[in-house]
Write a structure and sequence with these properties.
CATH topology: Cytidine Deaminase, domain 2
Helix content: 10-25%
Number of domains: 1
Bound molecules: zinc ion
Number of strands: 12
CATH class: Alpha Beta
CATH superfamily: Cytidine Deaminase, domain 2
Oligomer: single chain
Shape: globular
Largest sheet: 10 strands, mixed
Number of helices: 3
Distance between the termini: 62 Å
CATH architecture: 3-Layer(aba) Sandwich
Structural class: alpha/beta
Strand content: 35-45%
Length: 199
Amino acid sequence: MIRAKKAFGVSPIEEPPPPLRQKSTLGPRACGWPGAARAEGPVDVFVRENVRDSLGVSWGFSREVEEGGFLFGEVHRDADAPSRWLVVVTEVIRAEHTEEAPDALVFSPESFASMRRHAEATRGGASILGWFHTHLVKGPEDRGLSVADRDLHFSTFRRPWQVAALVCVDPALDPEGREVAFFARQGDFLVSCAVEVLA
Ligand SMILES: [Zn+2]
């Protein structure tokens, strides 16, 4: 019998859609998200308390340069509204090898490589949910994402459920007055997400 040698091709790996999940089954809520929760976008964000504590209070951030990192966790479709996404941020890490500047943060290829290594080595099935970075707040305009932030998100975090977290570091108020907001894509825009903390 002659068996034809199967051609080896590289076909895109089809990811199964995230599983359906009801919001109420995500677990008890804790209160205390350090920022306004506005539900504009198609993604609802849930963070574990350790993530809330790291981003919101306990991590010290530079008051001279922007810093950033990556978010990991679970993604679900909302069983009550399947076109919406529920992401649960279970871990946040600081990026390595960034190029930091007062008004910009640049992830280097090494930043992404070490982030992927981290995900593969320790996270098992956890998804890369997105990224965070800090803004040094000198005025109201610093509390929103810049054009460069939006470009980075759209070019790098292409899944519809991936989010960008913005940590506003006001040197006069930090960390007590620190605000953290999450944004997700809606068409060509990034709009803010509702955020809840899971106990
Ligand atoms: Zn920015």
